[in-house]
Amino acid sequence: MHGVWRHWAPPMERSKLATTAFAGAYLGVMLGLPVSAYLVTYIDWSAPFYFFGVSGIIWLLLWVYISAPSPITCKHISEDERQFITENVGRIATSQTTLTTIPWKRIFLSLPVWAIVVCNFCRSWTFFLMLGNQLTYMSDVLHLEIHNGGWISSLPHIVMTIVLLASGQIADYLRSTGKLSTTMVRKLFTVLGFSFEAAFLCGLAFVTQPVLAVTMLVLGVGLGGFNIAGFNVNHFDIAPRYAPILMGFSNGVGALAGISGLVSEHLTADGPAGWRTCFLLAMCIDLVGLITFVVFGSGELQDWAKEVEPQQSTEEIVRRLSSAIKRVSSIRGSSFFRRSYAKKDDQVSIADEFSRQSSERSMKEVKKSELSSIREADV
After folding, report:
1. What percent of the chain has pLDDT over 90?
2. Where are the transmembrane segments (predicted)?
């Protein structure tokens, strides 16, 4: 999605547009968990695969028809909207890159980039842990029935969807009004997300009463959505040209957090004590992400992400200078000839005028002579 948003999202609207897009993912989880639980309980274990597979194909057809990679090629917006987006996004976010022009070394050595990568891994650890083990936790520890657990396990993602939409609006408001810098906004929302998540995970490790445990689970996962308006849209701030690359890199490392499922399976084999260890480990990982982003995170455009004019070879410079000299010489030559012709025309005009005036004087003298002759004859 970052590859699309870099063409579509003006700088002061990136938070709310990106968080709105991410909200769709959590909305899918919110609906997917209870629907899957229902289909497995009343139809068959394979029913969710067919249902969501067909749903994905239908959405793909709609996406291909409606979407466009950039405002320039979109057929579903007005000309005013197209002009507004292209002018505000600017070249620095939309300019094309190639494998040879991407500053790979400087990207991999950039501390703000690694701050995003570490946060993505830490956030993904808790996400995968809860996504894959909520139903098991509710069934084995809280002793809830699976079809009820499906609806309850969707509650955290309902809260997260609301938090996502609100946090994006607030983040852009703080930036656009100048109340906080982009760096402070990103760090603020990252701290909020990880702090809420870590605090409720810590409480969840020592609570077994169903209502209180579910409340902590819902608030911990849901309020963790503040993270999305923090580090998860930070790619656009530090390197809008390379936002898709940074997103792919950070998501790739974040996917490694999928091992949390294996770790939790091993730890929870010991019963409630294992779940306590599992939640405390997730809390510590969240704190690592929080500290890393506070220390190394940034909201400023990085030097290596700025657009630089390509360097020209000596031969290219000589060729361009020769071409420029030829054009100047041609223009000056044309101007010289035009001035010469103009002078000649002026000289011809002056000669004609002198000849005309001489003729007039001669005619007058002839007439005077004739009049004098007539008068003498009369006398």
Report:
1. 39
2. 21-43, 49-68, 107-130, 150-167, 188-206, 212-230, 242-262, 274-296
